[in-house]
Known about the structure:
CATH architecture of the largest domain: Orthogonal Bundle
Helix content: 40-55%
Number of strands: 10
Strand order of the largest sheet: 1-2-3
Amino acid sequence: MAVKVREKPNGSGVWWVFIDHEGKRKAKKIGRDKKMAQDVAKKIEAQLTLSDCGLVDKNDKSKTPLFKDYADQWLEGYIKHMRRHSTYQRYRDVLRMYVVPVIGGMFIDEIRRGDIRSLLLSLFRKGLSRSTICIVRDVTSGVMGYAVDEELVVVNPVAGITRRLNLGRDKKIHINPLNHDEVELFLGACKSHYADYYPFFLCAFRTGMRLGELLALRWGDIDWNSKFVEVGRSNKLGKFSPTKTGRTRRVDMSDGLVAELHRLQITRKKETLRDGLKDVPEIIFHRDGKPMEQNFIRRIFKRGLEKAGLREIRLHDIRHSFASLLLTNGESPVYVKEQLGHSSIQMTVDVYGHLIPGSNREAVNRLDRQPSATYPQPTQKENAQQIEIAH
């Protein structure tokens, strides 16, 4: 019997557990946490030793985990270490609210496709959106796929089930942007009633950054000379992580935004001196030196909309407003894609392509303004041989 931990490939930082037992070999990818891989290897070795000594009955049903227990193991042992904290929380809540109450008490190897089908259809009948149902599907499939890897079940009963039920995600993204006048109306109301948060919302409307990215913004991210901000991290619940795409990008700043952030920086320095602090907090948008909570700034946004007499929209629609205004002003979708940090130009076009008014009409109107085309005619040769063309 041999259970070993190895880095594969060398230098990649990815750790595997290799098992060689009773003529069978198996490899399990653990991830980038070497200590976790070593712990997994120790547990596997202990289980194999007990089995070899006859102290564990391989056919003992009592050793098969319930779905709810195995889901906890998947969450705490895999998702918590390998995914963003916000993803971990979302998966945990989905399991608690929708999945565990229905199939949590079943043994992991007794769950069938019919059980999953009944679960998803019951959620659909309750009026849950297709997007939420697909998240339930994804989380449940993640647990069962993990069980397949550990050979607790033979197949994943969730695979392909939403396609057969025609419950796939609605691929159309619904946006509700503000126009230029509405943006200025909101910013004016914000400056009058919530002046402390005016720099935050001006930055949001002028850069299109995601909420988590705004809350993670530091003074050191700003290039005052070239007038751009480097976006490389996100913040949620006080925890910092990479951006949604995992990439760092540069976002241009307008002259007005540069001036406003410069004024804010001067204000922060005065506050630091007044309070007897040593250094200015590195986070730009904060409350008492700590990053603002997402729900807190959402409440301020909602109140600002009310003061401005505007319809209620999501804070994320600020990002959509930024993109739509750039495109309607004639900016290139490629430029908008780079500013937003989309992973591909296709995503930008799919979401915002319809917000380019008159672009196609102008293209065909230019045809009316073109002079009549003239084409050079071939020189006629005397006694040219005629060629018959078959029709």
